[in-house]
Amino acid sequence: MKPPLSAALFLLCLASAAMADSGPSSSPLKARQVCSACHGKDGNSASDQFPRIAGQRAAYVASALRAYRAGLRNDPTMRAQAEHLSDQEIVDLAAYYGAQTGLATRRSAWCGG
Description:
This protein is mainly α and 113 residues long. It has a domain at 31-100: Cytochrome c-like domain (Cytochrome Bc1 Complex, Chain D, domain 2, Orthogonal Bundle). It is 54% helix and 0% strand. The chain is globular and about 30 Å long. Residues 5-26 and 107-111 have low confidence and may be disordered.
C-alpha cells in the first residue's frame, strides 16, 4: 500500500528541515534547494498543500520569512527552515521567487474547476 501523497510530502519537508538544522545555509542556491522540496524548483508547488511562492512580491516573501524566523508566524516547518537564514539570504530568496512566473492556481472541483 502506497502512503498518501501528503505523508510523502510531509516526510520530504522533515528531511529538508533536518538539512536546515545542520547550520546556516552557505548560499542562496542551497537555501533555494531547501525551499524547493515543498514549494517546487521555481516556487510553483506541485501540491495544493504548499503555497505557490513564484511571482509573490519580494517584500511579502521577505516579510514572511523574517516573521517565521522570529517565531511571529506559527508554522513549525517554516520556522525550522527560516531560523537559519541570514538577512541576505532572505533578500536573495525573496528576489528570486519574486522574479519567477507564477502558474495559474488550481481550482478544486467544488469551485467548478
